[in-house]
Amino acid sequence: ATSIASFIERLRGSFADAGMEGQEFSYDDASGQMLVPGETTRVVPVATLFAQYTQCPDESSRRKLVTAAMEAFVQGAADVPAEYNSCGERLLPQLWPLEKIVARQVTLPSGFELPYCGIHGETPPLKTEGMEAQNFGVVLVCEYVSEGLPAIETPLLSSDLSRWGVSFVVALQKALDNLRSRTKKGPAAERRWEHHPSGCGQSCWQDRFDAARIALFPKLVTARKRTDGESEQGGHVVTFATPSCVLATVSKNALGLCFMGDSLHVQLPTREVEAKQTLSTIPMRLLKMKDPNSGDTERHPLHQKANEGFVWRWLPYSPGGPPLRSSGEFSVPLDQGEVDAILEAAEAGKPVPVFTAKGGKASASAEMPKEFAAKKDEGNKLFKAGDYVKAIRAYDAALEAGAPSDADAAIAHSNAAQALLNLASADEPRREACAAEALKRAVTATGLDPTNAKAYARAASACDLLGEDAAAKEFRERQEGCVAADAATRSLRQAEAKKKQEELEEKKASLQASKREKEAREALLERERALERERESEEKNEEAAATAKCLNSMLGLDPGLASLGGR
């Protein structure tokens, strides 16, 4: 069997024959990508190419793939066009996991950035915790299709936008128009979803843009109808599993949600190729929410209007969770045990169990804080070992597992920021790109926990590298404020502890004094009781003597002879 190492050597040989002899091609095993140096740094998706290479039926097909790869990544056939108007239908929006965005930012040369935004047009850094959490962003790509190669998506960089003279939003609008046109040319409305008997639908475009079109065009979800004619109750619940696979059902369909969870958490991990393409396993709820910018004349292209005064919004789904808190909703199972429990209850006609993200009946949910801690600890170990890129990925994995609190999430972001700062110090060509990403992560950390002094310090260090002296000064002032506040808090706590100790000592002394007084009172009472007993005894003796004397008088006996009565 062909190994990926031998495939990489074959690619390098082909690239050298094409005029790049003597160049160093840096391959990153973790991401499965190889950098091709030159005036334009190109990123070769080696793992994706190798997957197709192993499926080639003969040597002719393998040779054609390698040649096509050389044309794409050495001759620049897959490059972003030099002119904006030359993009045509190649320019498209795509969803990338945030960790992939970070990993790509780190590989970029100094002065280059990967522009992106949230699925509603949010400006980075995106929230990764709370009700508005997002675990992926919208990037722009230029698609390249060539015989013998899997489709190549070259991400649009800040340098491309500068060369074109257009903003990210303008380019995004064109990309959305292209995707909308492509969507209309695809399956007819009634064939856009394939439904499982449970009622859960799977997207049918399967062109690597299913997740993007459904996230960015929510009406594709609201127009979904089951082919069996069954009516559906509850809100729309969607999971963007891979770029080519989206699952959709409703919140009150227990079996549809069960199928969704089984597909995501039980079946998907066993499929090696699809598992590597996983975009997200977090179910999202589609809601109509009040439009905060209803009066604006210029709308962001990702502000998708639902009806007058309202827009569509994606929020993380939990049964009965905010903001609706609807009753009768079911959960998406997280493991085989939960899937079996739901199916067994349904077959037996019993109430279907609902597994919550806060412990409840969900065994996997109870493991979330443990998984966060384990991934964070893994990141710390990789950080100490100097493997900063893998450390960043581990911190991101911890955040995806779910932080127990905002303060914990802030620590993970802050640690990732420090790893990026270390990369910036060690890699001069990518210093600015790493520093810029470090600043974003540090600022995210301060937003989650405004008392995190280290996050402010790391933001300041990033500003130093970026030449932003005024910003660096402001962050250090905030850091000093945090340190001062922390010191004041510690001092206050110490004073409170001292006061409590003094109060405890006073209480202890008071108790001891009370005890002594009680003992003294008891002793006094005991003496008085003893005297009382003596008096009572004397009185009884006197009474006995008086009684005896009275009896003797009545009998006419001489008291002096009474003692002789026994003889």
How does the overall form come out from the CA principal axes?
Answer: elongated
Nearest-angstrom radius of gyration?
38 Å
Structural class: alpha+beta
- Average pLDDT score: 86
Strand fraction band? 5-15%
Strand order of the largest sheet: 7-8-10-9-11-13-12
Largest sheet: 7 strands, antiparallel
What's the count of strands? 13
Termini gap? 132 Å
Low-pLDDT regions: 358-367, 561-567
Number of helices: 18
**Helix content range of the residues, please?**
40-55%
Task: Describe what this molecule looks like in 3D.
The strands form three sheets. The protein has a seven-stranded antiparallel sheet, sandwiched between helices. β7 and β8 form a beta hairpin. α15 runs parallel beside α17. It contains 18 helices and 13 strands. The protein is elongated and about 150 Å long. The chain has about 575 residues and is an alpha+beta fold.
Indicate the topology:
Blueprint: H1 4-20, E1 26-28, E2 33-36, E3 42-44, H2 46-53, H3 59-73, E4 91-97, H4 98-107, E5 136-144, E6 152-155, H5 158-164, H6 168-185, E7 193-195, E8 201-203, H7 210-216, H8 219-222, E9 236-242, E10 245-250, H9 254-267, H10 272-276, E11 284-290, E12 305-307, E13 310-316, H11 336-348, H12 363-366, H13 368-384, H14 388-401, H15 406-426, H16 431-448, H17 453-466, H18 469-555
Antiparallel strand pairs: 1-2, 2-3, 4-5, 5-6, 7-8, 8-10, 9-10, 9-11, 11-13, 12-13
What characteristics describe this protein?
567 residues, alpha+beta, 7-stranded antiparallel beta sheet, 3-stranded antiparallel beta sheet, disordered C terminus
